[in-house]
Structures are given as C-alpha cells and as structure tokens.
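Page 37, top half.
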Amino acid sequence: MTGEVAGFAMDSLLSNGALDVFYTSIQMKKNRPAYKLTVLCNEGNLEKMKRIIFKETSTIGIRMYKVHRECMDREFKTVDTPYGQAVVKISRFEDIVNIAPEYEDCKRLATESNISIREVYDSVKRSVYNGKY
C-alpha cells in the first residue's frame, strides 16, 4: 500500500466518522515491514469503517477490540492577539487545564506577521490566560 493510498484511506475514515486514525510501523512474518492501521470509532460506525478499510487498503483481515475512551471536556474560543485572532482549544479535567492553539490559525498569523510560529503559539496562550476572548 503506497503512502498516497494510506493517506486517502485515513481521510476517508475520518470524514466518515472515525474518532481517530493512525498508522504504526511494524514487522510482519518473514521480517516484512508493514503498517498497522488503528481506527477508533463508535460502535454505530463499525460496519461503515470495516467497509472503508476493506475497500481502500490492501488488508484481508481486521482485528477488533472494544476499548473505553476517556476524554477531557473541551471548548473552542477565539482569542485576540497582537497578530490577529486565533482559535484555541481549551480542555479540562477536574483541576487540569490544557491550552492548544489551532495550528492553521497560528501558521497564518506567523506568515502574515513574519514571525516564528512559536511566538504566535505563546501569544495565543498568553491571551487565554489574560482572558482575551
């Protein structure tokens, strides 16, 4: 399976309801290199995911396991920075708070302002901590 086919399969799975999709480099029998495709989905999407996997990849078998998935509460906010507005994801669990600026917004602001993307990320986080949303 080529990288392009793997990317297309991933896009198809995600656009059809997969919660997460990733590849892991593995060694198969006779020491052959391969990729393990992992797809997380709700039970209601299982048949659709299986169909996409069989249609879009070279696999002839699927191993399935039920897993429990725990997620932080999250919200998206638009914050003002000296470089413009950016969306940030704020995730919470009990007393734990994670701040994750959206990459595409930060990339755009860094390019427009001719500064490093790290500076934009830092500015977005400061804006969240200072309540500028």
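Page 37, bottom half:
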Amino acid sequence: GMPTKTEQSDLHMAVYGGHGDAPRIVIAPTNVDGCYRCAGKAFEMAEAYQTPVIVLIDLYLSNRYETVVFPARPPFEADMNRKPGKQAAGTQYKRYALTADHVSPRTVPGDKGGMHVVTGLEHNELGRPNDSAELHTAMSRKRHEKLKAALRHPDFTHYKRFGDEGAVDVGLISWGSNFGECLEAMLKARAEGIRCAAMKVVMISPFPTHGVSAFLADCKEVLVPELNYEGQFANILQAHVARPVTRLSRVPGEPMKVEEILEEIRRLAGIKAAQKAA
C-alpha cells in the first residue's frame, strides 16, 4: 500500500500465505468495539484450536475514535483445558495425538512427563519428523478439520445481516473497516425505496459458507465493496459460493465514499441518479 494511507490489500496473504498446506483462522473486525472483542477472541480461539489466529485491521480502523462501552468481564476465556493428565508408566506423551475432535492434549514447559519434540517438518504423534504419506494425510486432515469447529465458536459474531429481510434488490457484503460506509450506503438506499441489505463477514477463514450462501440467495444483485485493487474478498467469496457478484474495488488510500457505493446500488437496482434527484 501507500505510506500513511489505508488499504485492505493483505487479505490473500493472511489467508493463504505460508509454507505448505497450513490453514489458520483469520478474523477482521469492522469497528473499534470489534477490535477489542476480536483481540480477546483471537487468544481464546488460538488456545481452543491450537492454531495461529490473525486479526486484520488497517490504518483507517486503527486511527478511528468511537465511544465504546466495555463489558463487565473480559471478552474471552483462554483457559488451558487440554492437559493430557498423568502418563501411564512406560508411555510417551503424544503432543500431536490424533483425537476425535482433532485437538491434541497440550503441556507447557515444566509439566512432568510433558517433554516433546517441536519441528517445522511433518511429524508423527510424538512430534518427531516423519515422511510417511499415510501419516502426512492424517496430520493434514487434523489441521484442517479442527478449524471447522471455529465456525461454531461461542459468543462470536462470525457474520451479521443488516437491513431488509427476505428477498432484496441489492445485497452488499463486505469486511473490515470498509463496512461502515457500506452500512450507511445501504440505509440511504432503503430510504430511497430500494430493497437493500448488507452483511459483514468477520470470520474470513474458515469461511462461513452456509450463512453467506443463505444471504446471497436472497439477493437479486450482489455488490462487494473493498479497498484493494483485485477484489481479494470477492475472490475468496466466489471460491466458496458459486455466485456472480459486482466488485467495487478501489485503492484511493482513503476510506471509500458512501455516495460512490450508493451510486452503484442505484445502478444495480436499475434506478438512475437523475430520477432520484427529481
């Protein structure tokens, strides 16, 4: 991006970047309150699913001022509740044990009997490097399958719909700091008589395909505004949901203008700006 300017151009890197086939959780708050809550939930999810969690914000969001009422208690409970228990005599601790929910018991340094190997290579249940095709397949399945539970993580807003319910002429779907402008444009469109709704997607990886698909099914036209040139969120969206969308991808270095989004809503709804002015 441009120095001291805002952009949403790191989404592909956050979701896909890395060595090998290594999935991770990526969440993107849309406002200041969301930053506070997502930061807490990131610690909670990292512990619950033993995986990296990336929280994506940008300059626009990090410099924003909002009035926020903090909850009476912290928004997360990162309790370590996967202790392996006492090891049977003559057995070794399996740090990467294959379990029913794909999350292994974990020790911390100092736990008796918890010594194990950590490596960046594929490994067996003990953590020792291993090049067995069968084991690599099993461990790859483990890393992918355990993230599905994140789509059901409690007390977390994975996505949320706003505006008209049921069938709409235009549906907006966006993420991160840009959603505020989308929400305002949607409200103005509704005031003009356009049936319109908007959805924010907070959990981007793993992608909440079921909820997003249900929203898109209600939309005659779908608009995806975002602050990057390629339309990275639209790419991810269409990789999971086979649905044509209209991309509104801009890189001005500044927040997207509400009027620009509103004009595109009008166009998709088949309403000319001149008619609205009249």
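Margin note: The chain has three domains: 11-77, 81-151, 159-277.
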